[in-house]
Design brief:
Blueprint (H helix, E strand, L loop, with lengths): L9 H10 L9 E6 L7 E7 L3 E6 L16 H12 L11 E5 L4 E5 L5 E2 L2 H5 L4 H15 L11 H13 L17 H9 L2 H15 L4 E3 L8 E4 L2 E4 L6 E3 L1 H16 L4 H8 L6 H17 L10 H16 L1
Antiparallel strand pairs: 1-2, 2-3, 3-5, 4-5, 6-8, 7-10, 8-9
Organism: Maribacter orientalis
Keywords: ATP-binding, Kinase, Nucleotide-binding, Transferase
Protein name: 5-methylthioribose kinase
Amino acid sequence: MIQISEVISFNSLENYLTSKSWIKKEEPITKITKAGEGNMNVVLRITTSSRSIIIKQSRPFVQKYQNIPAPIERIVVENSFYEALGSETVKENIPTIIGFDPESYILAMEDLGDCDDMSFIYHERTINTEHFKKLITILHQIHNTATQNDFPANMKMRELNHQHIFVLPFLTDNGFSLDDIQIGLQELSMPFKENEDLKKQVSLIGEKYLSKGNTLLHGDYYPGSWMSKNDHLYIIDPEFGFIGFPEFDLGVMAAHLIMATNDTSYIEKIEKTYPSVLDSKLLKKITGIEIMRRLIGLAQLPLSRTLVEKEQLLLMSKNMILS
């Protein structure tokens, strides 16, 4: 099995890519660079004499934190997700797949070019209204995509995510000092970590997350998975995708919009904009859990907020979870 990296030889990679018919023999590689700041996988931009493509390889660990194991099969889920959407209207909002090598866990796709993820909304504290509406439209199309019965359950990734969403953030001692993120955050977090009623509700939603649903989910629908290019939006990184319940994706989306803007009306806006009927209480609970785990859990965001602002968000999310 070939292992890709920024230091792989041009010749080795050319031989591999041409053997897969992903590039032609007459288009030699001119540059190999890292593509973006992905956490989970090795992602490279391969520039040839005529174009550029993206290749992505999963490893049995989180690429950014290699001491954290992660199921290598996640790239299979990502490919299955893109395949499921390939004949749908939403295909214009996902990268085109060039090829997939299941033996080497490598996915090749089009290079979206000069494209930035939408993490900038945390700094700008706002989101374009048309972008918001489009993100809802895309998600509804994903949720209405018919999938085959053999779509991967993705249980290993869900179990990993379950730990980071529903378990680790709520442990009083998880080996992760929040004061390393921001002095005073550890003390601020303790009343929430010690609230048994809160943790009971979180645990119940966590059980639902691991249960079988009937809707194709992206599984990580937040600004890091939203790409914007000249007002055109793309959705990437569906490796956490699974068949679940739509309120999960929508609650995650709502949480990040609220953290960015401090506007809780985004829950109501999502309910009004999303074309299908939703479970309002479940949506609100997911939103609260996602806010809380992003503030006092291990999966931190590029979110520059004062302790006072974070306390307000935590109290807000507590009320959502207990509602």
